[in-house]
C-alpha cells in the first residue's frame, strides 16, 4: 500500500503542523509543565480557530455536522496534533473537539437530543465505564456490576475503576451485566447522568499521568429508566468491543506523533552537543539509537496507516489495529526513552517534554488493552481462535 499523502492531505497536514507550532507550543511554554488544560480564554480562541480551519470535530460524521474526514487522513492529522508537550491525551488540548465516545452514535432520537448533540457542541462531557476492580483485559468475563429490572427501568449495583474524566463528566456510558447466564451476550450499555442518585465518584486514582483523570465509581441501588439503555439490552458488549478496536488506530497515531517529536529533538541535540571533543552525532552508539528510533517510527507509522486503510475500505481490521497499537505504544516508548538518554541529564528535567511523554507513553502499554492482549489478538489470527 502506498501511504504517501495526497496533495489535499498534505495541505491539511501542513495546516495542522503550523497550528501546533504557532499556537500550541508557544502557549504551552507559559504553562505549568504538567498542565492538561488551556486557560478558558485561550481554549475559546483556539477552538474558534480550528472551527474556521474546518477541522473541528474531525471524528464526527458528516450527518452530525462533522467535516467528514476519512480515517486515514485522521491518522495523518493526529500524528501532527500530538507533537507538543501534552500531545498524548488531549491532542492540542482538545481544541480540535471531537465526538468523545463513539458509542454515543448508537443513541436513539431522544438520546441524541439529550446527549449526542450537546456533546458535539462541547456542552457536555462523557466518560466510558467498562473496567472494574475485577479486571479490564477481559471485561466480558470480569464485569460484575449488575443491572436488575425494576419499575420500568434498571437498578445498577457495582463498581468501576480507572475511569477517565468521570469527575468532570455530565454523563457516562456504563456497562453492566443484565443476564448472568449469558457471558458477553448478557451485558448492556446504559447512559448514566452524573447526578443520578446512587451513583458517585468514590475517589480520584492517581497514576503516572500528570492530570487527575482516572476515577473509581460506585453504583448503589442506582435507578435508570428504560430510556437510558444505549442500543439493545444484552448487546452492549459488541458496542464496547467495536469501539475499543477502532479506537486503537488514532490511539496509535498519538504515540507516533510524540515519538516523531522526541526523535527530532534527539537528532538536533546530537548534532549540537559535544563530549570528549566530538559531536554526539559522530558517536556510533548515539547513531544506532537514532537508527533504532527511525525504524520504530517507520514501523509504527506503516502498520497504523495499514490498519486505517483497511478500516476505511470496510475490510476486517481487528488484527491490524492490534499490531498498530502494539508497535506504536511499545516502539514509541522506546523512542522517547532513547531520546531521553541522548539528552543526558536534560532529558530527566521538566524543562523538556520528554519526561512527561515517557510517563504517559508507559500508560499506553496498558490503556485500550495491554500489549499482552494485543499479542493475544494477533496470535489468534496466526493460530486460529479455537485454541484453549
Ligand atoms: C490512566 C488510565 C486511564 C484509563 N481509562 C479508562 C476508561 O476511561 N475507561 C475504562 O473502562 N477503562 C480505563 N482504563 C483501564 C484500562 O483499560 C485497563 O487498565 C486495562 O484494560 C487493563 O485492565 P486491568 O488494569 O484490570 O489489568 P488486568 O486485566 O488485571 O491485566 C493485568 C495484566 O495482566 C496481563 N494480561 C492480561 N490478560 C492477559 C493474557 N490474556 N495473556 C497474557 N497476559 C495478560 C497484562 O500484562 C495486563 O496488563 C484506564 C487505565 C488507566 C491506567
Can you walk me through this structure?
The protein is an alpha+beta fold and 388 residues long. It is built from ten helices and ten strands. The strands form three sheets. A four-stranded mixed β-sheet has the order 1-4-5-8. Strands 2-3-7-6 form a four-stranded antiparallel β-sheet, with no helix packed on it. Strands 9-10 form a two-stranded antiparallel sheet. The radius of gyration is 22 Å and the shape is globular. The mean pLDDT is 93. Flavin-adenine dinucleotide binds at residues 128-131, 135-137, 162-164, 207, 209, 213-214, 363, 366-367, 369-370, 372-373, 376.
Q: Can you tag this structure with a few keywords?
A:
single chain; 388 residues; alpha+beta; four-stranded mixed beta sheet; four-stranded antiparallel beta sheet; 10 helices; globular; binds flavin-adenine dinucleotide
SSE layout and pairing:
Layout: H1 7-29, H2 40-52, H3 71-81, H4 109-120, E1 126-129, H5 139-142, E2 146-150, E3 153-164, E4 171-177, E5 187-193, E6 199-204, E7 214-225, E8 229-230, H6 236-272, E9 274-275, E10 278-279, H7 284-312, H8 318-342, H9 354-363, H10 371-383
Parallel strand pairs: 1-4
Antiparallel strand pairs: 2-3, 3-7, 4-5, 5-8, 6-7, 9-10
The protein binds flavin-adenine dinucleotide.
Summarize the structure.
This protein is an alpha+beta fold and 388 residues long.
N- to C-terminal distance: 35 Å
Mean pLDDT: 93
Please tell me what the overall shape is: globular
In helices, the fraction of residues equals: 40-55%
List segments where confidence is low: pLDDT < 50 over at least 5 consecutive residues. Answer: none
Order the strands across the largest sheet as they lie in space. 1-4-5-8
Total beta-strand segments:
10
Summed up, the helix count is: 10
Largest sheet: 4 strands, mixed
Bound molecules: flavin-adenine dinucleotide
- Gyration radius, to the nearest Å? 22 Å
Name the beta content range: 15-25%
Give the helix/strand class. alpha+beta
SSE order, one letter for each helix or strand:
HHHHEHEEEEEEEHEEHHHH
Amino acid at each position: 500500500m502506498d501511504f504517501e499523502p495526497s496533495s489535499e492531505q498534505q495541505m491539511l497536514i501542513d495546516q495542522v503542523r503550523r497550528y501546533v507550532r504557532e499556537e500550541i507550543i508557544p502557549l504551552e511554554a507559559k504553562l505549568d509543565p504538567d498542565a492538561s488544560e488551556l486557560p478558558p480564554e485561550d481554549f475559546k480562541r483556539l477552538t474558534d480557530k480550528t472551527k474556521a480551519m474546518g477541522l473541528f470535530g474531525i471524528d464526527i460524521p458528516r450527518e452530525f455536522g462533522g467535516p467528514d474526514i476519512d480515517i486515514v487522513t485522521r491518522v495523518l492529522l493526529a500524528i501532527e496534533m500530538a507533537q507538543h508537550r501534552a500531545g498524548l491525551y488531549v491532542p492540542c488540548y482538545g481544541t480540535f473537539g471531537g465526538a468523545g465516545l463513539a458509542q454515543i452514535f448508537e443513541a436513539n432520537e431522544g438520546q441524541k437530543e439529550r446527549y449526542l448533540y450537546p456533546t458535539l457542541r462541547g456542552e457536555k462531557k462523557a466518560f466510558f465505564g467498562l473496567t472494574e476492580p475485577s479486571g479490564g483485559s477481559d471485561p466480558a468475563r470480569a464485569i460484575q456490576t449488575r443491572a436488575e429490572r425494576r419499575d420500568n427501568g434498571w437498578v445498577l449495583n457495582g463498581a468501576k475503576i480507572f475511569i477517565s474524566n468521570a469527575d468532570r463528566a455530565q454523563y457516562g456510558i456504563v456497562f453492566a451485566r443484565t443476564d448472568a447466564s449469558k457471558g458477553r451476550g448478557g451485558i448492556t450499555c446504559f447512559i448514566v447522568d452524573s447526578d443520578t442518585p446512587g451513583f458517585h465518584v468514590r475517589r480520584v486514582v492517581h497514576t503516572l499521568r500528570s492530570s487527575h483523570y482516572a476515577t473509581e465509581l460506585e453504583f448503589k441501588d442506582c435507578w435508570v429508566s428504560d430510556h437510558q439503555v444505549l442500543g439493545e439490552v444484552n448487546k452492549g458488549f459488541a458496542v464496547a468491543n467495536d469501539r475499543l478496536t477502532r479506537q486503537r488506530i488514532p490511539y496509535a497515531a498519538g504515540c507516533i506523533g510524540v515519538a516523531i517529536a522526541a526523535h527530532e529533538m534527539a537528532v538536533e541535540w546530537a548534532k549540537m552537543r559535544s563530549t570528549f571533543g566530538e559531536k554526539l552525532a559522530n558517536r556510533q552508539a548515539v547513531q544506532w539509537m537514532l537508527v533504532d528510533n527511525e525504524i520504530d517510527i517507520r514501523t509504527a507509522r506503516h502498520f497504523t496507516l495499514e490498519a486505517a486503510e483497511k478500516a476505511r475500505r470496510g475490510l476486517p481490521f481487528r488484527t491490524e489495529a492490534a499490531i498498530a497499537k502494539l508497535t506504536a505504544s511499545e516502539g514509541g516508548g522506546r523512542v522517547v526513552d532513547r531520546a531521553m538518554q541522548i539528552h543526558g541529564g536534560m532529558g530527566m528535567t521538566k524543562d523538556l517534554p520528554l519526561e512527561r511523554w515517557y510517563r504517559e507513553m508507559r500508560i499506553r502499554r496498558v490503556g485500550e488493552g495491554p500489549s499482552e492482549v494485543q499479542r493475544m489478538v494477533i496470535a489468534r489470527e496466526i493460530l486460529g481462535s479455537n485454541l484453549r
